[in-house]
Amino acid sequence: MKRTLSVLAAVSSLLWALPAAAAPAEVGQPAPGFALKDESGAQHSLAQYRGKVVVLEWTNPECPFVQRHYASRTMQKTLAALGGKPLVWLAIDSTSTNTPEKSSAWKKEQGFGYPVLQDPSGAVGHAYGAKTTPHMFVIDEQGVIRYAGAIDDDPRGRSSAPTNYVRQAVEAVETGKAVPATTSVPYGCSVKYKGNG
Amino acid sequence: MICSPPVRLVPPSLCVLALCAGPASAHTDAAATAAGALQGGVPRVEATLLSGLRRVSSGETFPVGVLLKMAPGWHVYWRNPGEAGLASEVSWTAPGLDIGPLQWPVPAVLHSPDGSITSYGYPGEVVLFAEARSGALAGRAVRLAALVDVLVCEVQCIPATLSLERELGVAPEPAVDGQATALLDAARTRVPVDARAADVELAPVRPPGLVAGEAFSTELLASDDEGRPVALAARDVFIPDRMAGLSSLVVESLPLAAGRLRVAGKLAPEAAAGPFALRGVLRLAGASERAVQVDVPLGSIARAGRLLPQTSARGPGLGWALVFAFLGGVVLNLMPCVFPVLALKAYGFVRTVQAGGGRTAGHSLAYTVGIAGTMLVLASGVLVLRAAGRAVGWGFQFQEPLFVAGLASLMVAFALNLFGVFRVGAAGAGLGDVVDGARGAWRSAGEGALAVVLATPCTAPLLGAALGFAFAAPAWVVMAVFLLVALGLALPFCALVLVPGLAAWLPRPGAWMERMRVLLGFALLGTGAWLVSVLGSLAGVQGMVRLLVFLLAVGGAAWVVGSWQDTRRSGAAAAAAAVLLAGVGAATLRFDLTTGPPAAAAWSPEAVAAELRAGRPVFVDFTADWCLTCKFNEHTVLSRPPVLEAVRATRTRVLVADWTRPDPRIAVELAARGRAGIPLYLVFSPHRPGAPEVLPELLTEGRVVDALQRATREMSAGLSPVPPTTEEARP
Question: Which of B178, B332, B393, B609 has the fewest CB atoms within 10 Å, counting from its CB?
Fold first, then answer.
């Protein structure tokens, strides 16, 4: 039985890795598993972070929306504000033309510590249905997606006190409360996926 | 001339002006243009401020607008940018002028190179305009200023904020700006007209069920004022506005029927309850590229009203949930998990009737109170766990090994009591003799409580839907549903009391009752054997052995108590029995969940998706070792040759989701299907991966075989449209 199960799991994870038009990830559903290398070559899988709250941030340093949020240090400040409990923050770049070198240079320039996972094939981006940069996902300790959408309610960067959806979702998950807004319409540049053919 | 696109209407003078990039300087016509979104010093967008009137007089209505010209390959966005991008914005400053809402020409539907991201926007050129009305004007000139905020994208995206400003002269007689008017008029022809004004009505063929957090699907028919279908554009037939509460929307036009389109979407979990309308632009067929703005009421969004997902898309309300809860409670009486206790109760009842029927009412009342009280305790437990954020379901207490062990001990003690090893109560000779006293009432209440506790792993048909409704509902609804289940469960015995003469149909007491008593004891031991097997799957063989040793101690204690029951040493015997139980219990009742065998959780959403991608239908069996209905189905239906043959013939993959131990993924999946408990059987077809067929809780061979064959037929039928009647029946 054990062996059958592991074979089944191996086969299903293999199929999962293929880029295919699967139903996109949804709030309330288990988060699609993945295993990606970061800019330094280290492997990260969603399974290894089971038991911790995970934030996924789709990113692209060439996108002005991402640039605006990094200029105002939105992501770093959000992470710092949530410093109380173990939290895993993973940036994912599904831009077809991105390279680990570009990610490293950008990470150095912006001075943040979390890894930038390399997804140039777009397989993981498609599995999550990531549409924009930034596009955020909050996954709870059991591996269930609890929030999907924008980082905040301020697409144009005009508000002095925007509502940070990711921060409020993570705080709700950590305290066992209902997430106030489980989805929002993400805004930003489209993810620059690899074209067909 | 007016019908041709504005691209060809740009007068040469404006084109020259548009190249004058840089910040707008006031009081000259040149300030009416600006360029932005610089890429390598080259602007990707140029904006020109337009006014239909060069000179304005008081009380005039005229259009004002902004001409946006994008570099080849670049675009700006519509008011709903779609899945990416940012809506364009124009904000006006014009003292003395009252400027109406911005008018948006029909946008183009833009797809990312890989086709996964759809957005709506304007490549090339667009004029966004509004109607202005002048008040009582004084002075020589009025100032017209527009702040344009756009995101300009090709592969890269560049935001641009353009400030435009010009002065319009004030004169007794207005003077028309011919070139600007031509551009504005051309743009106006491309703005969708109001559907009613165009005599076009778009209405759902049948209103879909709208439940927050769930998918919906409906077919819409566009017709004219005489009810004839209206021909629609061949592609990009519907461009949706941004609608609050909508998390996704897919629109396809049905090629075979004129004027028809299918809309499928999903509502956000936090979608507000109340009316929901589909808003957007419907493109009609024809050379002039007509389009109408529609606002189609689709019905009212219900929150968490997820009753009976397999038979009704509308989610009937609380009333039906209560009816099903009551009927489900009645059916529970026949379920194998409760039956031994009920048989025992029936036995006691016969004794009471024999002793003089007068007290039966009291006992039935006590029994009902016992059931209702336990149900409400269970409901409170559900509420407390839910408030703590735990995923709970019907029968969750069977995931706790100490609870299972306690219940098994109770069964053994009960059986030994029936065998006559010991008696309950200070005096008398057995079970039947104590029913007359005050303790009898307590006993009836206790039997009610036991019936409830044992009933939970059996989800009766009808009950699944009602509980699925209740587990997601407010606290008072949870209480009401549980109470109705209780009344249903208590009904058979209440009926014996309430219906005169019914009790006379009970068999006459006699020697058979003594034999019956022992027989019932064996039935209870059978229930005990099942509980031991439940514990075995929770805590492994080790745990099972520990429980059996403890049950042996329970037997020993019962013997000690029974042997000295009527002697002066009865107190000492009871103490010795208690010491025995405590000692053995402390040594044995420690169950470690991790030492058990791995749960056979071959099911996972990924596995389902993978099988469906491979083109195989999938049968998912949500089961647990403590779920007797599940085991019944597995032995009498799922393992039968006709079903196995159908599985082989249809190449169906069977996946088992084992809920014997807590698993949040399964709890989440059950909740997504509107269920709180098991069994649940789903048949996925690769043709409709998002909409599995939900089979009833009590399976029949024919039903399973039919569902498997249907899933395969849909596959071979390929992309032919599914008849709306079968599709409408599901959410």
Answer: B178
